[in-house]
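Colleagues,

For the teaching module next term, I've prepared a clean inverse folding example: a structure given as tokens, and then the sequence designed for it. I'd like students to try predicting residues themselves before seeing the answer, so please don't circulate the second half yet.
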């Protein structure tokens, strides 16, 4: 039996997605700053300020992901290369996983802070954020690949 309702395949609007990434300099600047701090030893007395900065980053990242999902991704009624559609589905779904990861990190950091485990927190939080940063960067790299693939697909030099 044929598929009765086909609403389209997920793909990206390459130009919009690229622009959302380019205009969000505040987010990338904050990320670079956090990366710099978290790759070095953290003094227990710096934890509160670092957690607050991470909270700001979490909120900006949530906004960034929702902009990407609202304007960068869309259901294309026209045929999309399956490879591209699969990657788009995968990367869009990663937003939620990444965001929840960061929320967990912050939850745990706040708990340690209120339990006054400052020394343990100072040791734990840096490597934890570096690990998150690595996953986020991987996501961004693959999304940039997706943008390039979508451009290629548009001009017909893809598969
Ligand atoms: Fe993304």
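(Answer key — instructors only)
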């Amino acid at each position: 039996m044929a598929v009765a309702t086909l609403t389209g395949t997920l793909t990206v609007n390459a130009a919009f997605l690229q622009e959302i990434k380019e205009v969000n300099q505040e987010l990338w600047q904050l990320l670079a700053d956090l990366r710099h701090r978290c790759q070095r030893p953290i003094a227990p007395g710096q934890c509160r300020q670092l957690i607050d900065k991470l909270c700001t980053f979490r909120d900006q990242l949530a906004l960034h992901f929702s902009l990407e999902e609202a304007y960068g991704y869309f259901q294309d009624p026209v045929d999309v290369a399956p490879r591209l559609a699969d990657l788009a589905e995968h990367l869009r779904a990663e937003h939620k996983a990444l965001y929840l990861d960061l929320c967990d990190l912050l939850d745990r950091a706040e708990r340690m802070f209120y339990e006054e485990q400052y020394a343990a927190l100072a040791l734990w939080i840096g490597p934890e954020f570096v690990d998150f940063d690595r996953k986020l960067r991987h996501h961004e790299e693959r999304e940039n690949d997706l943008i390039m693939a979508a451009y290629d697909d548009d001009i017909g030099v893809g598969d």
